[in-house]
Design brief:
This protein is mainly α. The chain is built from five helices and three strands, in the order ααβββααα.
Length: about 190
């Protein structure tokens, strides 16, 4: 557990540090955030043609309301927390890959719902927007990360138990009433 926590915190520091560098911002965070805004605008366009994206801003062309997707709102930090947790926990490469793939989709899926809901809540009521943005969705995104990590962790642990049960002591001699495990040590 100590090793996991140390590795987790170390990875968090490295990942958060890298994403804050000019290189991380220019080549990862900014393009990701811009793409996220455009993806949200395209989803909204299925039922509302007044939504457009300009850079990291999702805007309504009719009433002018806009949301700017900033750091902490683009899902990058939440994804990095999940990434650090999955990589820090002892598991197979395949298990890590599954956790990262499914986890990324789950975190970003909830984040897209978050952005679109805030886009409409803000058009309806500024106070409700502030409350939903600052309190509800901040907590829900991190709860999403925790739930995804715990589901993944449960699968990893169950998989390990199945492997232990299937191949644990298959080559060991059967236990005897004397408890020594040796067939020649039968009680007289």
């Amino acid at each position: 557990m100590v090793r996991f926590l140390f590795t987790f915190l170390l990875l968090l520091g490295v990942f958060f540090g890298l994403q804050l560098t000019p290189w991380g911002q220019d080549y990862f965070v900014t393009p990701w955030t811009t793409g996220l805004a455009h993806f949200c605008a395209q989803l909204v366009a299925f039922f509302d043609e007044s939504a457009v994206a300009n850079g990291k801003i999702l805007r309504n062309t009719v009433n002018g309301f806009a949301v700017s997707i900033e750091a902490g709102c683009n899902g990058v930090e939440a994804t990095l927390v999940l990434l650090a947790g999955v990589l820090a926990f002892p598991s197979t490469f395949k298990q890590k890959l599954w956790g990262l793939g499914v986890g990324f989709l789950a975190v970003q899926g909830v984040n897209v719902i978050r952005i679109i809901s805030l886009f409409y809540i803000g058009q309806w009521n500024k106070t409700a927007f502030d409350w939903a943005h600052l309190y509800i969705w901040q907590a829900l995104i991190m709860i999403d990360v925790l739930v995804v990590f715990l589901i993944w962790l449960n699968r990893v642990i169950k998989s390990s138990k199945l492997e232990d049960d299937a191949g644990g002591d298959a080559g060991a001699p059967p236990s005897t009433p004397g408890g020594t495990g040796s067939p020649s040590a039968q009680p007289a």
